[in-house]
Automatic annotation (TrEMBL), chains A, B:
Keyword entries, A-Z: ATP-binding, Nucleotide-binding, Transport
Organism the protein comes from: Caulobacter ginsengisoli
Keyword Cell inner membrane listed: no
Residue span, ABC transporter domain: 4-227
One MF term in the entry's GO annotations: ATP binding
Top-level taxonomic group: Bacteria
Family designation: Belongs to the ABC transporter superfamily.
Name listed for the protein in its UniProt record: NitT/TauT family transport system ATP-binding protein
TrEMBL record, chains D, E:
Ranges annotated as spanning the membrane: 63-87, 94-116, 122-143, 183-211, 223-244
Protein name as annotated: NitT/TauT family transport system permease protein
Family statement drawn from the similarity comment of this UniProt entry: Belongs to the binding-protein-dependent transport system permease family.
Predominant place of localization: membrane
Species of provenance: Caulobacter ginsengisoli
Amino acid sequence: MTIASLKDVEVEYGKRGRAVGPFSLSLEAGEIVALVGPSGCGKSTALRLLAGLEGPTRGTVTRAAGRGETSLVFQAPTLAPWLSATDNVALPLELAGMASKEARDQARAALGRVGLAGAEAARPAQLSGGMAMRVSLARALVTSPRLLLLDEPFAALDEITRRTLADDVLALWQETRPTILFVTHNVEEAVYMAQRVVAMTPGPGVLAGERVVTGPLPRPHGFRTTEGFRATAEQVSDLLATGRAAA
Amino acid sequence: MTIASLKDVEVEYGKRGRAVGPFSLSLEAGEIVALVGPSGCGKSTALRLLAGLEGPTRGTVTRAAGRGETSLVFQAPTLAPWLSATDNVALPLELAGMASKEARDQARAALGRVGLAGAEAARPAQLSGGMAMRVSLARALVTSPRLLLLDEPFAALDEITRRTLADDVLALWQETRPTILFVTHNVEEAVYMAQRVVAMTPGPGVLAGERVVTGPLPRPHGFRTTEGFRATAEQVSDLLATGRAAA
Amino acid sequence: APAAKKDKTPTGRTQLRFATDWRAQGEHGGFYQALATGEYAKRGLDVQIIQGGPNVSIPTLLSNNAVEMGMGSNDFVVLNMALEKRPVKTVAAFFQKDVQVLIAHPDVGIKTIADMKGHPMLLSGESRTGIWVWLKAKYGFTDDQLRPYNFSTGPFLADKSVVQQGYLSSEPYTIEKEAGLKPAVFLLADNGYPSYGTMAMASQAFIDKSPDAVRAFVEASAIGWKSYLHDDTKAADALIMKDNPEMTPDLLAHARQLMRDYGIVESGDAAKGGVGVMTDARWEAFFQMASGQGVYPKDLDYKAAYTLEFLPKAPA
Amino acid sequence: MRRIVDQVAPILLLALLIGGWEAACRLMDIKPYFLPAPSAIWTEAIKDAPLLALSAWGTLSRAFIALVVASLISGLLALAVSLSGILERAVRPLVVTLQVTPIIAIAPIVQIWAGVAHPERAVISLAAIVAFFPIFSGALTGMKAADPDLERLFRLYGASRWQTLTRLRIPSSIPFVLEGHKVAAGLALVGAVIAEFAAAGGGVIGLAWRIQESLFRLQVAKAFAALLILGIMGAAVYALLGLAERRILAWWRGR
Amino acid sequence: MRRIVDQVAPILLLALLIGGWEAACRLMDIKPYFLPAPSAIWTEAIKDAPLLALSAWGTLSRAFIALVVASLISGLLALAVSLSGILERAVRPLVVTLQVTPIIAIAPIVQIWAGVAHPERAVISLAAIVAFFPIFSGALTGMKAADPDLERLFRLYGASRWQTLTRLRIPSSIPFVLEGHKVAAGLALVGAVIAEFAAAGGGVIGLAWRIQESLFRLQVAKAFAALLILGIMGAAVYALLGLAERRILAWWRGR
Ligand SMILES: Nc1ncnc2c1ncn2[C@@H]1O[C@H](COP(=O)(O)OP(=O)(O)OP(=O)(O)O)[C@@H](O)[C@H]1O
Ligand SMILES: Nc1ncnc2c1ncn2[C@@H]1O[C@H](COP(=O)(O)OP(=O)(O)OP(=O)(O)O)[C@@H](O)[C@H]1O
Ligand SMILES: [Mg+2]
Ligand SMILES: [Mg+2]
């Protein structure tokens, strides 16, 4: 079953001409897809289209996940400055009607999972860049959404935190099987987390190609050092390089 | 000659207790230093202290680079929304008294160098995350500063753009020999670009250790695959891991 | 202060700005008549009538030489200036009776002003420093009766117990015309209120510089007033309606009729002394009343406030 | 379709309101001098149209000049003041004093300063005094609302006070200055009317006179007709400024 | 040291200004009825201190109540209106009309509604009308100034109109609402005085009567003494609100 899809979408912003597309992408229920591509190619735009935050200039967008079933992590943290970390994370739960006390309990637990135990009471302005981004991630995960759209969620994080969180997201996926699309600039991360990696070309980004990652999910220990992993990562890097060369 | 230094600095933010330190770091004229450490350890704070944007709660900060000789790239792009990319980059030049036309010419050239030819007229709100960050980087480079402080300048960029820009910064360094301190989460990037990698511990970050990178600068082709590179990167990763374990 | 720098106008006549106390209306008719019939011009005056309004302070204009002459509405205005030693003198009084009235609903048993005791009374700010002093003195009214009057009779009509101040030709007419109610009207002057109305005041600077112009103005205005009450007024009325488009021939005729009926201009001393006359005796009477109420110190040199030297010769 | 509903519904709502008012006046037999019925107001407005239009034009043009004057002076003063904290602390209480000074109280003096021969000058000065404060306060607040990190960058680049002002604080203040103008425009209009009440005597043709004279003559419907015109002008000016604000903010934000 | 200079300098500047005024009055022999000297104003203020204090207290307390009333009503109306675009488009012109209505013009009618026996009610209502608009406009502008990406998130999470309002728009509007209150406070004060001029008889003790009576009696210095008190109250209220604004904004920004 297709949870969300883009079909031949193009996006134009005023007189700056076409920014993205034509581009197609289809997300099947429960799959994890990574979206990679050079800076400015249209990855964030594709995510926004899938979330229904914007409409395409041409082409069609479909979405089976209803309101309140989709979670999004923007490229920037996008937190409410007047709310504490806990309250920011509790927000989507409270919006869905959960009692404040329970929502905050769950929010605290989610903050603990992203390594922010101790920063629950801090305001966004008091957090470091990586911490704010993790609050944003916790907010997206806490609602157990059917469709999870993540825009470079780990870009501001160090390697160790990054790997821990990647495994965390995979564990969560194991539990509730959401459909996950995430943007990353880290090819190894893409291959490690996704079942399928979609690459875009620069400029007005179109599909550069895609690679299916074989292997069990969640990844077994030492997966990153396997031959298959190396080969797929290599292939994705090549896709990006040829896409860039063609543009 | 020491261009800037932190000596036993500690930073406390109100009742949240100590955020950083005690931490010491000294930058010699013309050297390139990479600062790595887990999210929230105090890297951005250290940069702000060195730039003189904040004062430490305890300890001393010295700086030999005068006003207008220091450039900073914040972790977030921090562009003026009402100025085009060109005007944002031309700003420090114009503030230093350069004629508008010349400043804008240089700004356009700088934008070209970070791969943004064609986006000169765009406003920050019309740029992708990575593009905005590159404008911010161009703004920092355009003044040929004596002291260059970069806070995760390449975090939002794809691998290829990232490497190109790293080489660009090294080429610039080759020309004017500024002192460069840059924060990164990418250990390989740290080792590739820096002569010295300083690692911090989590929590209120203190020094976890530092490693000197041997080898010529700018890096010869294939440097990333040399044994020395691999070994140093390994050592830095270990520093981070033990620092984390100790905390 | 932009005092009259050039006191001769291009016509070669003496410039004389005369500030009235309200928008152009019948009660200013004499001045407009003198203007319309050329009485001023004939005497070498280039008179410009500047209309006033509820917040225009003629004493301020006069004492700062912003105008040469202005209208004094009642004796309080004049004596206040004496108290503050303003360089202004009153030179003629064209209304022997002040046209201030009190108005009451016809069917609440108010037969005399004395019956108004205890009734809420709408008075403008200025009246509170004026006629109210006299009303308190004569009838023992108390401050808790006071309500603000904004020159709208709405609040009066809304509440039958309310009484209010008025201008002889204005409010009673308005109330009758718009609300179909014939109110009880009491002219203060007919109940012993000693103040003059519609006086001509001149700044000391102007008196010193052009005493003849002052005399000429008083003379011409007196002729204008007589003429306005008895002769053809079309030209003057046209001037009034040009200055104040809200005025109607109807209203003007009504005002003229009342001024004649009540002898506003031509009664009392005017019968003998001519239109515009003032007497020391009358001024003293007013001063005694007001200082008796503590409004002015007993030793105030109230005579400094006016001068009789510009009054026209008594008609033979 | 949606759009048409959006356009028509507010008008319907207003019509309903006015209808209710009319009905109340008729059914409860409210005297026209207490609260005139909309129909009566309309009749007067039509009857007096030429005179009203002339008066409205007078008031509007004076209010406009007053707004421009207030905008320029308050802008310049806010600039001057934001160059020096000391100056700001000295000037702010004075400006607030000016704001809380009832123009009715100072009208006589302003009248003299402006010269009796120029009542329109007095009216414009007084209306400008009324409109002054929101722009000044907005500019000051806005200049302090600059992104603190951008401010730090300016310091780092060795920007002078003047450069920080012109290149950072002024652009940053735009949203607040626009809001200030939206408030000030209405104040200039009502300020012009009150100033006409207070300082113009009979010499200046404006709506104040229409209103006052009508109230004095108990022709409340006529006064309301003038107030109606005033309200329409106010709403139009506000709508125009709102449009300008949206445009300028879109430019400012870059999208 | 720096701090002391910062504190003292503005006072010195003000003193200089007042000194210059005094000197001008004395040297140029300016008549007290053209512009009274500061010393004369001060003398009057001291002489009348008890009465002035009483009057000032009356005006201040009514202005305060008016501000609270205006704040509550405009806040609630802004809320209601921002729940429905249609309502907003219907209400906005009405509110602007109210803003541009000179209270002098509607004073007689408000007087009737409030009852001739309750002039203080009329004063408070009229002052609230004057103070209403900046808060309303600020709240509306502020509610639209929410971070568009946060707004998108709310939509994505299926937030209801009411939730978006209470949890996003209201908090987002706080900086603009505070600015609105700073402007409105002064307007409430001057509005109270004008309303006293227009609708309060001898029964209401306030500064307006002090001013008006002094002007009628041609005691300009005395009138200026009352204006001085008014100015001091205005500056004090503004300073207090500025302090509150800084505190609240620091809380709001989280640093
Ligand atoms: N509001 C806008 N107005 C005009 N152009 C826009 C707007 N938003 C995005 N763009 C353009 O659309 C293109 C794609 O932007 P997008 O943010 O999707 O890139 P991205 O792939 O996410 O890049 P990055 O990796 O740098 O975040 C860019 O060229 C950008 O300039
Ligand atoms: N304004 C502030 N108020 C309170 N705490 C703050 C403030 N700014 C930073 N901190 C705290 O200081 C610590 C260090 O922050 P800093 O931004 O330097 O981290 P960082 O090393 O740059 O992290 P990252 O890699 O996530 O950007 C964090 O724990 C953060 O919560
Ligand atoms: Mg992006
Ligand atoms: Mg950081």
